[in-house]
Amino acid sequence: MANLYALTGPDRMTLYWDLPVQPSERYEILLDGVPCGSTDKTHFTLQGLTPRTCYAVEVRPVGSIQVVTEGEKRPLDVTAEPWGAVGDGKTDNTAALQRVLDACGLEEYVYFPAGVYRTGALFGHSHLEIWLDKDAVLQGSSRPEDYEPRILSRFEGTEMMCYASLLNFGTLDHTAGPNCEDVRIWGEGTICGGGYDLAWGTIASERERMKEELAAMQDLVKTCENENTIPGRVRGRLINLSNCAHVRISGLTLADGPSWNVHMVYSRDIVTDHCTFRSKGIWNGDGWDPDSSEDCTLFGCTFYTQDDSVAIKSGKNPEGNRINRPTRGIRVFDCRSSFGHGICIGSEISGGIEDVRIWDCDLEDSQFGVMVKGTKKRGGGVQGLSVRRCRLPRVMVCQVGYNDDGVPGPHPPVFRDYLFEDLTLTGLYRDVDGDGSMKPCAPVELAGFDVPGYELEQVTLRNLCLAGSETRQLLLKDCRGVCMENLNCVP
Is the pTM of this model over 0.90? Predict the structure, then answer.
């Protein structure tokens, strides 16, 4: 059945589905014809199932599918011989953990019992499963040298040699499809990067390496966000997925990458669910970043991020225009922001972004709510955005002035075909980049580009509740074809 999906383990399955055009107040779940639960969300988890068993699953009124649970696998305990990892928070386990990752086969999974396992960069492979028990922490080193040699990666829309990430899967190749498939990283534990110390240690090391080069490019440096922008682009991530397919990340706390936490590039079918993202105090501390990737899904997650909770990207001009790999088929639902910028699309949009659907998210405690952002240089664009049944400080489509260095693309971005429906807009945002207080803002701010043919067009605002806003202003600039239906102001 289209739009009804299942993620399975040996004894459980998680169902999820797209929000219908006419949503139900509750959805009834039946297993082999027997009612087993209901929910007002668009996902549901069943546990206590039998391995290698086919089940008939029905979600009323969405549809039905046949689901087969997986077989049980043999755990490879990282603390056991011949691996011998030590969870004392001090021992360098990089070599031991890499050996167990390399050895893990189709009928096995890498098992982390409770403990703190310090490590440098690790590299996974296809058909790999990793499970972290409650109180198990995979703790990244804070030393830049522990993430060498560098690997080809992409940062802020440009391919370059970067320090490796804590967990690395796949090899970057914009001309090809997946080279790493069928990966699962899940459990009840934590994956924690080197955080602030690693980020600034990397920047300092790169600034020293580039000292003469930076001195010769001061005109370019002046166009950047700050003096750390160029040396900061070589930082690794927490989890890096390059040219990957069929990856699930579930149940974990993902914290303190030196830049972004989960970054997927040229990938498809990446599902992240029931995770907590933390990166407060880390510059560029994004949570979940699909980049020139397709059919990526995020749900049931909570964000405490210093930058974008979600950042949807597709490359930066002119390289992003040339590579021309769009991001499409992104689904984000039942997520909440407790600190962070919210869900942001851009600013790297040169490869194009299409078909993004967001629903049932509570981003009230964020800086931007839902934001589409770009610069006139980008090319590409964002087409086909749906935001429904969310609570937000505001919705924004705007131009930004940062990350605007480099050669322009062939034309401004195309912003077209947006639906904002059944939203509560508070008109108060969390000043994440300032003092952290709540401040007033316009609940709706929409702007295209002041170039004929590149205005923001075909926008529908329907059933919006402007709740408690001090301004209640709707700011529109360079727009065409904006339809407003049933906008209500309440105290």
Answer: yes
